[in-house]
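SAMPLE LOG
Freezer: B-3
Tube label: C17
Construct: single chain, 147 aa
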Amino acid sequence: MSKRIHRIPVALAFLFAAAIFPAAGGEAAVVDGDLVIARKDLSNIARFYPVVIEGYTMEIIAVTAPDRTIRVVFNACQACGPAGYRQSGDSVICKACGNAFKLSVLERRRGGCNPIPVGEKNRRDDGANIVVAREFLKRAKDYFSRL
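STRUCTURE (predicted):
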């Protein structure tokens, strides 16, 4: 009987934690080779979307910045390569060097240890989805495979 009583608070704690700290991973569809991210899934919690192009895995980060615009970047940088980033509050932090970048600067800065922007010209927003074209991802794969 006492074992059962202890299980209930533990289960409730897990449910509470899941509600407060949603999974940072994301599910995106691949349609005709394009990466399709549902806008409804985006918030100020960075979502990480792995994509495989010709056997090479890259990852895209999508997040809503404080100004409510959608920011889309690669989970890699020119300086530290594909080490990637993790989110802490309103910033992403490079896993290799520890540099922090506010969500508000994502996709606005280039070079160094900034997450590499996808750029608005390389994606389209149809109101319901953010779509990153396969041809752009294919060119990016060639770049990232050299990092």
